[in-house]
Amino acid sequence: MTESDEPRIVIPPRVTIPIGPQHPALKEPGMFKLTVEGERIIDAEVNIGYNHRSIEKIAEGRTFLQVLYLAERICGICSATHNGTLAQAVEAAAEVEIPERAKFIRTLTWELERIHSHILWLGVAFHEVGFDTAFMYSWRDREVVMDLLETLSGNRVNYAMNTIGGVRRDVTDSLKETLLKGLDKLEERMKYYRDVAIYEKTFWNRVDGVGVLPNKIAKSHGAVGPTGRGSNVPTDVRFNDPTQAYVHLRDSGEFEMVLSDREDVAGRAIVRVVETIEAVRMCRWLLHNLPDGPIRERVRPRIQPNEVLARYEAPRGEVIHYLVTNGSDKPERWKVRAPTHANWVSMAYTLRGGYLADAPIILAAIDPCFSCTDRVVLVDAEDETIQLKPLDVLRAESNKWYESRT
Amino acid sequence: MQGILDGIVHILIQSFGILVFPGIFFISFLALLWEWIDRKFYARLQNRMGPMHTGWHGILQPLMDFLKLLGKEDLTPEKADKRSFAAVPFVMLSLSIILTMFLPIVDMNPLVPGIQGILSFEGDVIIVLFISTLMAITIVLAGYFSSNPFGQTGAARTGMLLISFEIPLIISMITPAMLTGSLRVSTIMNRLAGQAGIASLPLAYLWLLILPFIIFIVAIQAELERIPFDVSHAETEIVHGWQVEYSGKKLAMIHLAEDIMLVYAAGLAVTMFLGGPYLLEFIPLEVFSVGFASLMATTWVGWIYYALVFILKSVIVVLILSNMRTLFARWRIDQIVRAGWKFIVPLALVNLMVVQFALVYIFPLLGVV
Description:
The structure holds two protein chains of two kinds.
Chain A: E1 15-19, E2 31-37, E3 40-47, H1 55-59, H2 64-71, H3 79-94, H4 100-128, H5 132-153, E4 162-163, E5 166-167, H6 173-199, H7 201-207, H8 215-220, H9 225-229, H10 237-240, H11 246-252, H12 265-288, E6 306-314, E7 317-325, E8 331-337, H13 339-351, H14 359-365, H15 370-373, E9 378-379, E10 386-387, H16 391-405
Antiparallel strand pairs in A: 1-2, 2-3, 4-5, 6-7, 7-8, 9-10
Helix pairs in contact in A: 2-3, 3-4, 4-5, 4-12, 4-14, 5-6, 6-12
Chain B: H1 2-19, H2 24-45, H3 61-70, H4 82-101, H5 124-145, H6 149-180, H7 185-193, H8 203-206, H9 210-223, H10 235-238, H11 248-273, H12 286-289, H13 292-298, H14 300-327, H15 333-366
Helix pairs in contact in B: 2-11, 2-14, 3-11, 4-5, 4-11, 5-6, 6-7, 6-9, 6-15, 11-14, 13-14
């Protein structure tokens, strides 16, 4: 069969399969080294850092208003998250209270974004298990909420709704009607997808009992968002530590935190789908109870020295913006902890012991967002030392490297 | 002199049959057409448009994809077994073409009653099944020769798929053979259809073909590695599995071979279960019962008529297969093996027993022979 003297094709009992940096299951670059024995995953290693953009460093040279637009480019899917959370942080640092109506509209944008993000995730999950039909259908219906977001903010992806001291665009009565009509359609479709996800056997078999993350591990590894809530960890900033209009939403008593005690991918899927229906109801409540008044407050450009921590429950989990101001119109230090960063820790645990075929859906189940997360860390391939490098050193080194090439 | 001339004409007609119609060219044409129908129908069911730009509603898209791949760079991995690696696409393509040669599309041998395929002899069902198993084995080899972890995983999965769904496929094809008492594809088809002077079977026998047909469709879907059985080249898991290292001409050939396998699968379902290229003959009118068959068998009208009926019936099978592809998510390999051995294989065996029991005891008792 083989022409060579020594057989070159050897199947070792353990094969290391790289998922990434480029892999169809991953929409962004990231690397997962899986050691498999047959179809079983023995060991998993998470290796990220292919998508570093040094946004935090760039922000230190810009004014707060400019950083606001930079912040929403951290992530395309949760752009309103970073945009709104930073606005929230700056307002807290400036110690100004924004008008009620602005709070409601900001929350409305956030919740609409949650709907679009969760439908997107659902489509990706369907695609990862090879159920392309449901993927196409769910993304078609995602267009409804994309259109709503476009009529609300003028943009499909980077909404730029928030400004420091309020929001930029108002919700008119005719827009309210359009939004309510769209929300009705979304609720109907989401109920349908909930039934598809639960009652479609081939999909359910692929997520049932897969990627188990026990409650204890989820707590100790600090899982956030639907990943944590799918393992019955009551972590939801919207209810634990509400800001903006979430205070009113919580006080209305109509909404509850969505939890699942399944602890597997199915649990995470159910949490997301039910949460989407909850988000539709929240949007409707916000529109019905929209208070009158101005939509923005003027905030002086220079912010007094202050140190604030803004939290918000992004679609993927808790996002934290840590901001230090120094009295100028530029941030002294701005640090973003995106939810995916917190969820990486439990990733390797959930992958271990599963099937290779389940790796994509387990990876997708935390709804990873690499570009939000990446920090630059240099790992030496030979002795595996890890080294953090500041930007100027990196720049000097890269210049040197390019010079040596020519 | 006359004898030599006749011989030359005969050889010319035979080579026309093998090369053009209903041979390689016609089969390749059907293969690309089936791919378009499959893609278009799959897309429409998913609320997409599917191919639109090349030709009428994108009908030339599969051909364009094929030609484009032919012009692409052809890479061979350094660690691959080069000669075997290069041989696999050729072997796959030729095996799949040989398989389609057994399908009775138009009458290639007027001396034998009934429609005959290009290749037809007593016991060819065994050869057909053997070659289709060989196809699966070439897939395993393709995966291993590429010496890529994804390829090897894909190859291992193909092997698992092979041992679970090859058996129900064979058993489901035994039923028509049992009913007709023949192991020749064309005889089975002609007897089931009851055409061309061959003694037909009682209608009651045809009820026994429903369950094997369902098993056949499921098993052939696994044989073709389509959703929900596409584990061996699941792109989100192992990046096209055994195909991952193939590019350029080799990939074009593999794709063509896969399309031809779809022609073969649909054609086999038509031949073994749906009465082959007969349609109007089933209408109980005098026009179609007297002289129609002989007219069709002797003139070129018959070639077109049989080919069109074959295409029509095959399209129905292709649409069933595409619909199945739309409805399900991909199964995991362990779920497939479990489903295969827990449900499909026992079902096939029970079906076999029921058929034998009916043939030996029930039908004679009812007076149906």
